[in-house]
Design goal:
The chain has 223 residues and is of the alpha+beta class. The chain is 43% helix and 25% strand. The strands form three sheets. A four-stranded antiparallel β-sheet has the order 1-8-3-6. Strands 2-7-4-5 form a four-stranded antiparallel β-sheet. Strands 9-10-12-11 form a four-stranded antiparallel β-sheet. The longest helix has 27 residues, at 116-142.
């Protein structure tokens, strides 16, 4: 299967169209921890994740890292700067070994003109991300530490979890420092709250794997 088939904005295209798009870009691999984009750089390309995960981060006034989003296989990033002509609004770092498909700015514009369905899908994705950002801001401003950590877990479940009969398994949680950056708290607090959730029976911890034992109940209690 063409790897572009799982990318939401290309899902309605024919195989011949996907092969054409594949011919426009290039593949590039990054080691875990590598910086892919830096905040403030000019935007000249859009990136699609073939394999691996990346985190989108900014640094607050105190120098602490704040994680805005985590993207995985089939997700894309870097489109905002090439569409509005501004510089990159955040830094993107490979969480683990990652392979990307890169399409330059001119080719992205050509695709939007040639395939209106891509432009419509892109607008829908912008709306989804805006809603998620609003939810994240609300959670950070109104909830206590447990609620914020729960919000991070639920967000990861929705994006990367495997749902089975009310349970949700996340096979590889971000490291606790990254979870702390997403929740606006400390690594020690994340560790303590995860153990509390486990003791309460809401989750089961197995190393970097976590199972939400009753997704709807957990969501009702903490979100």
């Amino acid at each position: 299967m063409n790897f572009l088939r799982i990318v939401q904005i290309f899902s309605d295209l024919e195989e011949t169209d996907l092969l054409k798009i594949e011919g426009l870009g290039e593949r590039k691999k990054y080691n875990g921890g590598s910086i892919i984009l830096r905040e403030g750089e000019p935007g000249t390309a859009m990136f699609i994740i073939i394999a691996g995960k990346v985190k989108v981060v900014r640094t607050d006034d105190g120098g602490s890292e704040v994680i805005l989003a985590i993207f995985g296989e089939g997700d894309f990033f870097g489109e905002m700067a090439i569409l509005d002509g501004h510089t990159r609004s955040a830094t993107v770092v490979a969480i683990d070994d990652t392979e990307l498909f890169i399409i330059n700015q001119d080719d992205v514009f050509q695709l939007l003109h040639e395939y209106p369905a891509i432009a419509i899908s892109l607008l829908k994705e912008f709306a989804v991300r805006l809603r998620q950002a609003n939810t994240q801001i609300k959670g950070l401003s109104l909830k206590d530490a447990a609620g914020r950590v729960a919000g991070v877990i639920l967000r990861l479940a929705d994006e990367f979890g495997f749902f089975t009969k009310g349970e949700v398994e996340i096979t590889e949680l971000p490291v606790q420092q990254d979870m702390a950056s997403m929740a606006g708290t400390s690594r020690e607090t994340v560790s303590r709250i995860l153990q509390m959730f486990a003791e309460q029976g809401y989750v089961t911890l197995r190393g970097r794997k976590i199972v939400i034992n009753d997704y709807e109940k957990f969501k009702t209690m903490y979100f």
